[in-house]
């Protein structure tokens, strides 16, 4: 039943994307590790990490598209779930440092020693074990999303008001995580990681491994999201987006419909954050900043909301643009991003993928018209 | 004498002091088809809002099947008790195909997980075919509902209502935008489904109401003005005054 459920959602678009991911999962590590650095086909570790980062963002965008594109919930706080997943992973990585920190304290992370703390806070317990940390990566964002959604959806907060409170949520977390006494490293966050699962976190093979893990997570996320949106539940989700009260009069419990997608989406965002942190080597409160969440919305809008593949595409393209701009004209990037958002909203309401779909439709229409025309011509010449 | 399926007792609703429903009482028997008429703003749609849980009344109760007070329940619960509704402005899911609209309405478990793992059964397929036939939308089954004409949307929404297989159907102005022939077919259809289901129809189209040939309730300023056959109520002096705007 599960395989049928998972495979049922895969269309051509999905197979293309999954094939590309499969090729990258093999080619990128090969080009980075096996191809000699002198060859033009060689990839630097920097590029591998950069690509890994893009795909983490792609998974975040995918999770956002699930709620925004299919359920109409414009979350301006999805970065919070990403960051919480990231912090859960960061806590595991901090615990792996052990006595190799600056203060050489086997039990306490450096920032706690610095703050004169004598023992590990209770909520840090268990994070030295990877399975526990991995569970927390999905559980913490999931529980927060569930609680948030429970109250917001039951009080029927929708539209702009809902967007504003998602933004308030991430902003509140930003302020909280800035505080030193929260026990998450305050302003500086968590960093100076050494090992993951016993492997040196800087080693090329580990970096390649993290890249592959990210690609696999993105692929799984994509398959899961496609299965969800193409099921009957997915159709209810779209119906809620388009005519919420009508769905109620059909007997569906709209709160539960929203809550499921919302919570699932938060868990996916958490996984994205957890994969991001070991690759960039740091997690700090800036990931909670409202701007970070808004950027994710722009990726989805650019790629085309409500298409899943568009979210992935948008995240990769916009972040590639960001890398390029910040290298060449760093001061222009924010204007370029803002301008891009305005352009897309005005001229490409369905994003890049929507444009491609429209073009294909127009082409098909022209072809069928041409066919009809030649048929008419044939009929006219027939006796 | 059977117990009524639906019993509105002294229902009042006010919007900012304006009484949209004023101590309205109404009884619908199982299997009955009832027409409700009344000038614009009489409170007909508001009455349906109260029955379906969209609007909470200030006073009064709405008893369904004798012992369930609908005024305490939420929309989805009421729908699942067996009350379906067609809106005055046809509301279908514009981005879904005709087929998907019907599939979503079909009487099946409404939970998240039954939705995730739902697979169209042979029975469901047959039922959908039937509904496509009844609504004459068979050729348009794969068209997205947003691309349908106004009358077709009306039919689709009626089809969705039938797919729910409710005990009570609330039908708000079903023939707006339909041709005379379609209007007649709609009257026919509603007559055919009453008996097994109870139906309340709100309509301004008197030709249609005459076609139905059932008991008529006249609403005015949120209260019942008259009740009886169309001929009786149209002979009623108060009703004539109201319709002539005196
Ligand atoms: N949500 C609301 N807020 C304020 N006033 C409302 C609301 N809903 C309805 N009304 C008012 O209540 C009165 C009754 O409205 P209702 O829609 O029930 O009339 P109706 O009989 O269905 O009329 P029509 O034949 O035009 O559909 C109207 O005066 C309307 O303006
Ligand atoms: Mg009305």
Automatic annotation (TrEMBL), chain A:
<feature type="transmembrane region" description="Helical">
    <location>
        <begin position="332"/>
        <end position="357"/>
    </location>
</feature>
<protein>
    <submittedName>
        <fullName>Urea ABC transporter permease subunit UrtC</fullName>
    </submittedName>
</protein>
<feature type="transmembrane region" description="Helical">
    <location>
        <begin position="41"/>
        <end position="61"/>
    </location>
</feature>
<keyword id="KW-1003">Cell membrane</keyword>
<feature type="transmembrane region" description="Helical">
    <location>
        <begin position="208"/>
        <end position="229"/>
    </location>
</feature>
<feature type="transmembrane region" description="Helical">
    <location>
        <begin position="297"/>
        <end position="320"/>
    </location>
</feature>
<feature type="transmembrane region" description="Helical">
    <location>
        <begin position="67"/>
        <end position="90"/>
    </location>
</feature>
<feature type="transmembrane region" description="Helical">
    <location>
        <begin position="259"/>
        <end position="277"/>
    </location>
</feature>
<dbReference type="Pfam" id="PF02653">
    <property type="entry name" value="BPD_transp_2"/>
</dbReference>
<feature type="transmembrane region" description="Helical">
    <location>
        <begin position="132"/>
        <end position="153"/>
    </location>
</feature>
<dbReference type="InterPro" id="IPR017778">
    <property type="entry name" value="ABC_transptr_urea_perm_UrtC"/>
</dbReference>
<keyword id="KW-0472">Membrane</keyword>
<dbReference type="InterPro" id="IPR001851">
    <property type="entry name" value="ABC_transp_permease"/>
</dbReference>
<dbReference type="InterPro" id="IPR043428">
    <property type="entry name" value="LivM-like"/>
</dbReference>
<keyword id="KW-1133">Transmembrane helix</keyword>
<feature type="transmembrane region" description="Helical">
    <location>
        <begin position="14"/>
        <end position="34"/>
    </location>
</feature>
<feature type="transmembrane region" description="Helical">
    <location>
        <begin position="159"/>
        <end position="178"/>
    </location>
</feature>
<keyword id="KW-0812">Transmembrane</keyword>
From TrEMBL, chain B:
<keyword id="KW-0813">Transport</keyword>
<dbReference type="GO" id="GO:0005524">
    <property type="term" value="F:ATP binding"/>
</dbReference>
<dbReference type="Pfam" id="PF00005">
    <property type="entry name" value="ABC_tran"/>
</dbReference>
<dbReference type="InterPro" id="IPR017781">
    <property type="entry name" value="ABC_transptr_urea_ATP-bd_UrtD"/>
</dbReference>
<feature type="domain" description="ABC transporter">
    <location>
        <begin position="6"/>
        <end position="246"/>
    </location>
</feature>
<keyword id="KW-0547">Nucleotide-binding</keyword>
<dbReference type="InterPro" id="IPR051120">
    <property type="entry name" value="ABC_AA/LPS_Transport"/>
</dbReference>
<protein>
    <submittedName>
        <fullName>Urea ABC transporter ATP-binding protein UrtD</fullName>
    </submittedName>
</protein>
<dbReference type="InterPro" id="IPR027417">
    <property type="entry name" value="P-loop_NTPase"/>
</dbReference>
<keyword id="KW-0067">ATP-binding</keyword>
<dbReference type="InterPro" id="IPR003439">
    <property type="entry name" value="ABC_transporter-like_ATP-bd"/>
</dbReference>
């Amino acid at each position: 039943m599960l395989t049928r459920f998972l495979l049922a959602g895969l269309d051509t678009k999905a197979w293309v994307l999954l094939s590309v991911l499969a090729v990258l999962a093999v080619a990128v590590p090969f080009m980075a590790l096996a191809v000699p650095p002198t060859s033009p086909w060689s990839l630097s570790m920097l590029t591998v990490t950069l690509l890994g980062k893009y795909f983490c963002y792609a998974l975040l965008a995918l999770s956002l598209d699930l709620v925004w594109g299919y359920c109409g919930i414009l979350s301006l706080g999805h970065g919070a779930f990403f960051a919480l997943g990231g912090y859960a992973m960061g806590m595991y990585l901090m615990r792996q440092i052990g006595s190799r920190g600056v203060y050489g304290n086997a039990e306490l992370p450096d920032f706690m020693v610095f703050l004169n703390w004598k023992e590990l806070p209770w909520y840090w317990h268990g994070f030295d074990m990877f399975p526990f940390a991995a569970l927390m990566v999905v559980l913490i964002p999931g529980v927060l999303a569930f609680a948030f959604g429970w109250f917001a959806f039951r009080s029927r907060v929708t539209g702009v008001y809902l967007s504003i409170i998602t933004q308030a949520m991430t902003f509140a977390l930003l302020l909280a995580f800035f505080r030193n006494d929260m026990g998450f490293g305050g302003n500086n966050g968590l960093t100076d990681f050494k090992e993951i699962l016993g492997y040196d976190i800087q080693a090329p093979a580990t970096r390649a491994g993290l890249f592959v893990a990210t690609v696999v997570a993105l692929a799984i996320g994509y398959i899961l999201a496609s299965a969800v949106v193409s099921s009957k539940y997915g159709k209810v989700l779209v119906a809620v987006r388009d005519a919420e009260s009508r769905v109620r009069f059909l007997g569906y419990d709209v709160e539960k419909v929203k809550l499921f997608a919302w919570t699932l989406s938060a868990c996916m965002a958490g996984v994205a954050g957890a994969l991001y942190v070991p690759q960039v080597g740091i997690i700090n409160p800036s990931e909670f900043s409202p701007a970070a969440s808004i950027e994710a919305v722009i990726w989805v809008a650019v790629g085309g909301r409500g298409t899943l593949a568009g979210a992935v595409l948008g995240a990769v393209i916009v972040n590639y643009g960001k890398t390029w701009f910040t290298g060449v004209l760093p001061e222009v990037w924010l204007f370029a991003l803002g301008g891009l958002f305005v352009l897309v909203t005005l001229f490409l309401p369905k994003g890049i993928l929507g444009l491609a779909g429209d073009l294909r439709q127009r082409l098909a229409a022209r072809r069928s018209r041409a066919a009809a025309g030649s048929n008419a011509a044939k009929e006219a010449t027939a006796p | 004498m059977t117990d009524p399926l639906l019993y509105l007792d002294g229902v009042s609703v006010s919007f900012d002091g304006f009484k949209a429903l004023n101590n309205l009482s109404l009884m619908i028997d199982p299997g009955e088809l009832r027409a409700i008429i009344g000038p614009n703003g009489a409170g007909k749609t508001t009455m349906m809002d109260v029955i379906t849980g969209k609007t909470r009344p200030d006073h009064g109760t709405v008893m369904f099947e004798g012992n369930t007070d609908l005024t305490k329940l939420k929309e989805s619960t009421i729908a699942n008790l067996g009350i379906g509704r067609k809106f005055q402005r046809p509301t279908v899911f514009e981005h879904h195909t005709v087929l998907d609209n019907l599939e979503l309405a079909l009487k099946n478990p409404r939970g998240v997980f039954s939705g995730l793992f739902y697979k169209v059964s042979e029975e469901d397929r047959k039922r959908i075919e039937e509904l496509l036939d009844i609504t004459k939308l068979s050729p348009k089954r794969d068209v997205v509902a947003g691309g349908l004409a106004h009358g077709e949307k009306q039919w689709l929404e009626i089809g969705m209502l039938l797919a729910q297989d409710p005990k009570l159907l609330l039908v708000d102005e079903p023939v707006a935008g339909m041709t005379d022939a379609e209007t007649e077919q709609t009257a026919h259809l509603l007559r055919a489904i009453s008996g097994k289901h109870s139906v309340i129809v709100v309509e301004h189209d008197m030709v249609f109401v005459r076609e139905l040939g059932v008991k008529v309730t006249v609403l005015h300023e949120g209260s019942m003005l008259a009740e009886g056959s169309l001929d009786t109520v149209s002979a009623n002096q108060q009703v004539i005054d109201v319709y002539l705007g005196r």
